Amino acid sequence: MLSKVSILAFASAVLAQTNGTAPTLAQALNSSSQLTSLSGVLALPGLAQLVQGLSSAQNVTILAPSNEAFASVGNETLGALTANEGLLIALLQYHVLNGTVLSSAITNQSQFVPTLLTNELFTNTTGGQVVEAVASGDNVTFFSGLLANSSVTQADVNFTGGVIHVIDRFLVLPEVVSDTLTTANLTGLRGALNKTDLLEAVDTTSDVTIFAPSTEAFQNIGSVLANASTEDIANILTYHVVNGTVGYSSGIENGTVLTTLNGANLTITIGDEGSIFVNSARVTIADILVANGVVHVIDEVLNPGNATIADPSGDEGEGAFPGATPVSELPFTSGQPTPTTSINQEATSAAAPGASSSSTAGAAAAMKTGSVGMGALLGAAAVYAFN
Ligand SMILES: *[C@@H]1O[C@H](CO)[C@@H](O)[C@H](O)[C@H]1NC(C)=O
Ligand SMILES: *[C@@H]1O[C@H](CO)[C@@H](O)[C@H](O)[C@H]1NC(C)=O
Ligand SMILES: *[C@@H]1O[C@H](CO)[C@@H](O)[C@H](O)[C@H]1NC(C)=O
Ligand SMILES: *[C@@H]1O[C@H](CO)[C@@H](O)[C@H](O)[C@H]1NC(C)=O
Ligand SMILES: *[C@@H]1O[C@H](CO)[C@@H](O)[C@H](O)[C@H]1NC(C)=O
Ligand SMILES: *[C@@H]1O[C@H](CO)[C@@H](O)[C@H](O)[C@H]1NC(C)=O
Ligand SMILES: *[C@@H]1O[C@H](CO)[C@@H](O)[C@H](O)[C@H]1NC(C)=O
Ligand SMILES: *[C@@H]1O[C@H](CO)[C@@H](O)[C@H](O)[C@H]1NC(C)=O
Ligand SMILES: *[C@@H]1O[C@H](CO)[C@@H](O)[C@H](O)[C@H]1NC(C)=O
Ligand SMILES: *[C@@H]1O[C@H](CO)[C@@H](O)[C@H](O)[C@H]1NC(C)=O
Ligand SMILES: *[C@@H]1O[C@H](CO)[C@@H](O)[C@H](O)[C@H]1NC(C)=O
Ligand SMILES: *[C@@H]1O[C@H](CO)[C@@H](O)[C@H](O)[C@H]1NC(C)=O
User: Fold this and answer.
1) Contacts of 250 (CB under 8 A, 6+ apart)
2) Is the distance from CB of 111 to CB of 250 less than 8 angstroms?
3) Positive or negative, the Cα torsion across 228, 232, 237, 240?
4) Residues 239 and 374 reside in one and the same domain
5) Which is it for strands 130-136 and 96-98: parallel, antiparallel or unpaired?
6) d(CA 78, ligand 11 centre) in Å
7) Which domain of life is it from (predicted)?
């Protein structure tokens, strides 16, 4: 049996391999003063296979967390992470993009780039889990789970297998829908899905697009919900879920028709300033990546019996339930877990009414900063780290 020491020696031998004139992975990592913490972690015995794979990889992009990124993660979090190989490997795989993406190829139009993450807990989509890449002025930013933002501090460090971009914060692994709804404070929707026994289906169906009404949107049609049967509510909720399509905001065409779990269709309309409407509702927060697809927050509850399309020049959606009146209590929220961490509200502010774009691109300048706890780094995955 190999001792830890010999595996360590093996890992560094792999790191030291050279290949023609391009720097090897090890040489490239060593060339940046910002990557000493990452190099230290990559020397862990449990990562030897991953490191060997990366060292001989072709056509990949490594998003390499800087020393600053490591410093912003507490020691307790790092310790728990390194003690859980499966989780650490998943996290690092998520930092490797499939394809060489030079910084010059990243524009102010969001791109959703596939990664090498394969762990089904965090990726249950055809083609693999993605990160959102977008440039704002000279800054290149990647958005990951919970809309966490990571900015490039050193771009285009070439190596034999592709290119490395140094980033200032770790990417966050996308979580299941139910936990993302909790973190995003979409408690009303979570409660409604639980009440109708749809939560598990929404968590475990691969390749979904979910239009998630805000809790206020449910509150605004409270009079309708008060008189609705559980079956009526399920009928409304399934109209918000598209099975078999992961629809990100970029590249979606005006007038796209999507068939929902309910069987009825939704229509996407794009406003002149890039705002996105689904039937009568406006997308207020786009592209929250989840393990099995993507969630877009909307400002109205959709009505399968009324597919009216809103005027896309408006700042807000229009109610789809004629005559509905608000109630004072927040529907469906009772007994639901409350958020212990939050999504990146700063990144979403540009999607608010009146902003020029509903994509996160417009918000790339507004970043979440500060230290990163276990919950913020791993979201619901934190639970695996402590097991
Ligand atoms: C060296 O590069 C060649 C072609 O670019 C590739 O086939 C080979 O696997 C590489 N070797 C190592 C050790 O990376
Ligand atoms: C974290 O660990 C480093 C290195 O072991 C140590 O220098 C630092 O003081 C620790 N920080 C905290 C907050 O414990
Ligand atoms: C990378 O993408 C290509 C298609 O562009 C695909 O054939 C290949 O399997 C992917 N590799 C991994 C490791 O996901
Ligand atoms: C690199 O990967 C990208 C994405 O998977 C693919 O489209 C491209 O053809 C690959 N290029 C080479 C040279 O393998
Ligand atoms: C780029 O990032 C720097 C540092 O985070 C920030 O000060 C600057 O305003 C950003 N520029 C743009 C155009 O977003
Ligand atoms: C990395 O390679 C690309 C093209 O292959 C080149 O444009 C870029 O300048 C290189 N980066 C560095 C730092 O040499
Ligand atoms: C969560 O949503 C509720 C209902 O809309 C709101 O009252 C509350 O302030 C929100 N909490 C946070 C932390 O944003
Ligand atoms: C992934 O999706 C499949 C259905 O396509 C489902 O059977 C499976 O349970 C899902 N896995 C997870 C971890 O949710
Ligand atoms: C989603 O679509 C797949 C494939 O068509 C199907 O097997 C699955 O039952 C559907 N899921 C739900 C929740 O309807
Ligand atoms: C939904 O749209 C599809 C494709 O546009 C169409 O074939 C289908 O008939 C529509 N279904 C309903 C219920 O309108
Ligand atoms: C999208 O289509 C709607 C009507 O179908 C139109 O009012 C709107 O201007 C179009 N948006 C763009 C960006 O062309
Ligand atoms: C979810 O629904 C079940 C019944 O289907 C109920 O027992 C449970 O209390 C609900 N949980 C929450 C958090 O609402």
Assistant:
1) 109, 110, 111, 112, 359
2) yes
3) negative
4) no
5) unpaired
6) 48
7) Eukaryota
In a domain? residue 357 = no
Q: How far is the CA of 102 from the centre of ligand 4 (A)?
A: 12
Same domain for 170 and 31: yes
End-to-end CA distance of the chain: 27
User: Considering the domain boundaries, does residue 91 fall inside one?
Assistant: yes
Question: 220-279, pLDDT tens digit by residue?
Answer: 999 999 999 999 999 999 999 999 999 999 989 999 999 999 999 999 999 988 899 999
Alpha carbon distance 195, 86 (integer Å): 33
Q: How far is the CA of 165 from the centre of ligand 6 (A)?
A: 12
The model's pTM is 0.88
Cβ–Cβ under 8 Å, residues 337 and 375: no
Quick one: which atom of ligand 1 is closest to the CA of 55?
Answer: 14
The DSSP annotation for 159-196 comes to ETTEEEEEESS-------HHHHHHHTT-HHHHHHHHHT
- Coil, strand, or helix at residue 117? coil
Confirm or reject: Cβ of 124 under 6 Å from ligand 8.
yes
Q: How many CB atoms sit inside 10 A of residue 85's CB?
A: 14
Closest CA to 161 of 90, 65, 62, 89: 62
Q: Is the shortest distance between the CB of 45 and ligand 9 below 6 Å?
A: no
Residues 237, 376: one domain?
Answer: no
170 and 191 fall within a common domain: no
Q: Is residue 353 part of a domain?
A: no
CA of 256 to the centre of ligand 1 (A): 44
Cβ-Cβ contacts under 8 Å for 153 (sequence gap 6 or more): 34, 66, 68, 166, 167, 168
Is 60 exceeded by the pLDDT of residue 350?
no
* Distance in angstroms (rounded) separating the CA atoms of residues 228 and 221: 11
100 Cβ inside 6 Å of ligand 6: no
